[in-house]
Amino acid sequence: DTGVSQNPRHKITKRGQNVTFRCDPISEHNRLYWYRQTLGQGPEFLTYFQNEAQLEKSRLLSDRFSAERPKGSFSTLEIQRTEQGDSAMYLCASSSRELGYGYTFGSGTRLTVV
Amino acid sequence: GENVGLHLPTLSVQEGDNSIINCAYSNSASDYFIWYKQESGKGPQFIIDIRSNMDKRQGQRVTVLLNKTVKHLSLQIAATQPGDSAVYFCAENIGDTGRRALTFGSGTRLQVQP
Fold first, then answer.
1. Do A37 and B1 count as a contact with CB atoms less than 8 A apart?
2. What is the C-alpha separation between A105 and A92, in angstroms, rounded?
3. Which of A10, A28, A90, A108 maximizes the CB count within 10 A of its CB?
4. What are the tens digits of pLDDT across the range A1-17?
5. Size of interface A-B (CB pairs under 8 A)
6. Which residues partner with A94 through β-bridges?
């Protein structure tokens, strides 16, 4: 499978716990994005990497959220001290300059905070 | 993702009919638009895109129309099939700023009746 891979697919955690999600983009894509999607809504932008550099962060990305892309390949998104409002689908996407803006999305990680 | 679009506007069509899904965008500076299809449990899937210097673009069974005067975008699907049933999102980008984030609309659920 050469698409964008996200793990885990589902995560249930207790409020206050930390969680980490992983995204493996399409190998030749240098751009990687994280989005959050709540029920009935379109995806909302969280952050964007070009290679290993994090170039933009949304105001939605509070100080409890941190994203990394250490070698310009896979990326992780960590949420510390989870809250019930963090329950959502977390989507990763990748693209390359040659493709313009047409991202390829992964299937997402569904987070449920109980 | 799962249960995407619980309370979304719904368009119900008969198999074989043409479908038209509409989207109003808000930012007159947006210069790139994309339509995505999202099936339950999956990430958004690219359908077709259009740049602001165009009014119309056609793909396989799909056509996107852009009316910049009224900031309106539409997706036409010809000979709609049961496999077209999904939630459809329009997304916009302001390319001149170099910003790579997409802003998504709230989505429309398409139900195809056999």
1. yes
2. 6
3. A108
4. 579 999 999 999 999 99
5. 75
6. A32, A104
